[in-house]
Design brief:
82 residues; mainly alpha
Length: 82
């Protein structure tokens, strides 16, 4: 009985660690980086108009943040400007 309990406990710890490392941690990093990108691309004036330049700034800030945190850089808004 103790052997079964030990195996189940170890298995749950390993599965929990894998879930944390490959699912939860990356999603939290992406949330943090999206906030960073939004803050860095905010306009300095009173108008909140979305422009290509602002989207480019947000995508760059997001990609840089992901790379800094150890994830594969990707873009935030789903396309890259040419």
């Amino acid at each position: 009985m103790n052997t079964k309990l030990l195996i189940i406990t170890i298995t749950l710890i390993i599965l929990g660690g894998l879930f944390y490392w490959f699912q939860y941690r990356p999603s939290e990093i992406r949330k943090k980086c999206a906030s960073v990108a939004q803050e860095e691309s905010k306009p300095s004036g009173g108008f909140d108009i979305i422009t290509n330049t602002r989207l480019e700034k947000a995508n760059k800030a997001y990609s840089d943040c992901l790379a800094k945190e150890g994830l594969k850089p990707e873009i935030l808004y789903g396309w890259e400007s040419n």
